[in-house]
Amino acid sequence: MKAPLSRRRFLSGSALAAGTAVGAPLLGLAGSAFAKRNPPSRPRVDPEQAKALGLEPVMINANENPLGPSAEALKAIDGIAPSGGRYLGQMQGELVQEMAAQLGVKPDYIVPYAGSTPPLTQTVLAFTSPTASLVTANPTFEAAWRTAGQVKAPVHKVPLRADYSHDVAAMCAADAAAGMIYICNPNNPTGSLTPRKDIEYALAHKPQGSILVLDEAYIHLSENAVTGADLVAADKEVVILRTFSKLYGMAGIRLGYAVGRPDLLERLTYFGTNALPVTAMAAGLASLRDPKLVPTRRAANTAIREDVATWLTQQGYACSPSESNCFMLDVKRPAREFMEAMATYGVFVGRSWEGWPNSSRITVGTAEEMSRFKDAFAKVMAGERGPVPLKLTLLQDERRDGTFMVV
């Protein structure tokens, strides 16, 4: 397996230096490949247009949690904010200790980050190269294969099985020179699970010298997903990624972490680390120490998701089996058209994925939001359009949350 690129050489010519390593959109790339495209014109609805017509926007397009941080997390943020002029490194140590205790690993097996996209990016940089490929499912979260493109690593996208789980046998056989196998479990965008026995198969049969990356961003929302933390504790070649953006409702506060053997984590941190926001650390500690938060929010999300999925099935529209806060919905027409039509009712749904042009990702919102979704869905499928006007907007590129970057 080829050694990772020099950090200086990589960053000097990479869009990651402009902020994408922390999940920022590619907004400042004048002269880049994006700018060289001939941008198309598309109809677009802005949430502010819906609000002006008295329709509070229903934002179920980006896998955010409409509940936001818990009451205890908000209290912790308020309490720590006056100390925001300090780095508070001791609090980071306390946070790591809490994470390690809950996962059953040693503290030096954890590195915290501002979200889980930065360590995912760094993992791809560390373990793939032009001669060490990335193997992923399709569809799945694309940040890994986008980063692989930056380092010219080959990417093998293996279709999900008929039951929407990862086809681990095909993934392990995809490339004997693979550097990294990426499994998002539960998967984004389908919300589907890959059983523990398949995770163990992937670990046992992955190419020699490769790393197995388990993205557990949505694991708190599942009643049946099993973490791979014990595999890390057993010093296997596994890196786990977690985030507080989903169940914990901290997408805009930014907190996540990587879990792995210290020697593997050193490969990641070669590409940089930084002090965490004190507000994120305080909110994270408060969230982890609230024993009712995960089961309460998981149960509420499950009930709403199952209600909506049952209703859609009754209408004749298939949903992917989900144990997450999202699912893919086959709308039997181009998903782009469906997105635009739903937006005329102030309901903003998610996009399609490569190879699934007629399916839209739906994030599970509150009961009230999903009631609005049902109402708009029924009208759109009957050929109706809402009161929010579409306007023609020059687009540069579509962001991963289904909104657009405007030239």
How does this model look, in words?
With 407 residues, the protein is α/β, with parallel strands linked by helices. It folds into two domains: 10-67 and 294-406, Aspartate Aminotransferase, domain 1, CATH 3.90.1150; 71-288, Aspartate Aminotransferase, domain 2, CATH 3.40.640.10. It is built from 15 helices and 14 strands. It has helices at 7-12, 33-36, 47-52, 71-80, 89-103, 117-127, 143-150, 168-173, 196-205, 229-233, 262-269, 278-288, 293-314, 335-343, 367-381, and strands spanning 41-44, 58-60, 110-113, 133-138, 155-159, 178-184, 211-215, 238-243, 256-259, 326-330, 347-349, 359-363, 391-398, 404-406. It has a seven-stranded mixed beta sheet with strand order 3-9-8-7-6-4-5, sandwiched between helices. It has a three-stranded antiparallel beta sheet with strand order 1-13-14, with no helix packed on it. A two-stranded parallel ribbon has the order 2-11. Strand 4 (133-138), helix 7 (143-150) and strand 5 form a beta-alpha-beta unit. Helix 4 (71-80) runs antiparallel to helix 12 and helix 5 runs parallel beside helix 12 (278-288). The longest helix is centred in the C-terminal third of the chain and has 22 residues, at 293-314. The radius of gyration is 21 Å and the shape is globular.
